[in-house]
Structure formats: structure tokens, C-alpha cells
Amino acid sequence: MQLxxxxxxxxxxxEKLVLFENVGAQEIDLRPKTNPDMPERASGAPxxxxxGANPDDDTQAEDGFAMGVADALNHMVLTHKTEALLVxxxxxxxxxxxxxxxxxxxxxxxxxxxxxxxxxxxxxxxxAIDKA
Length: 132
Fold this sequence. Notes:
about 130 residues; alpha/beta; Nucleotidyltransferase, domain 5; five-stranded mixed sheet; globular
């Protein structure tokens, strides 16, 4: 996958967000960025309650975190802090993020990779982007 220079790369799982900026023109060169303030979300989708299909508080906390990340990324897009966005997230988290995207955020997405790469080095993440 080619990644535009200046693209924001968000690496997310159910508990952690790591942001990078691609500073490379021809090759992917990721530089860490400071995480934005994250709105607290108590549960996933509004009005969603624990049920037999979603029985535990941990799942609700992960869903809530994903929605908070979606809110933060939407804010970054809507305030013109990024023109291109690549999201790398654990598959379940990616599904939750998609539910929270603003239409402008969807328009700025240059790609999604359904993998859990939190805890990996920037070089390992760059290699995964290259292979995608």
C-alpha cells in the first residue's frame, strides 16, 4: 500500500491508541505523534446494554474506547489536522470504529488494515503497511 506523505496512521486495539505521521515521500517513514484527548465513553453504541451476546464489562469498555477513538479521529479530521488517515486495528475494534466514523472521516480514509499491531515497533507497522 502506498501511503501519502503527512498521512496520519492510527494503530488501535480495545485499550490502546498509538498515532504516527508518515514523513516519508517514497518510502513509509513513521514518526510518533501525541495522542489527542479522548472523550470518555462508558459503553459502545449509544443505548447499548450488556446482553447474552455481549455479556461482560470488559467488552463494553473496549467498545466504549473504540467509540472514543472514533470521536477523537473525527475531531482531528473535522478540524483539518489531517488530510489522509490510515487505520490499523484489531478486527473487532475496527468494526466498532466504523460505526462511529463521520462521513468526512470516511472520505479521508486511505485504508484500513484489520490487524492488532499495538505494541509493535514503527518499523514493523511500516512493513505491514507495505505488504497491505
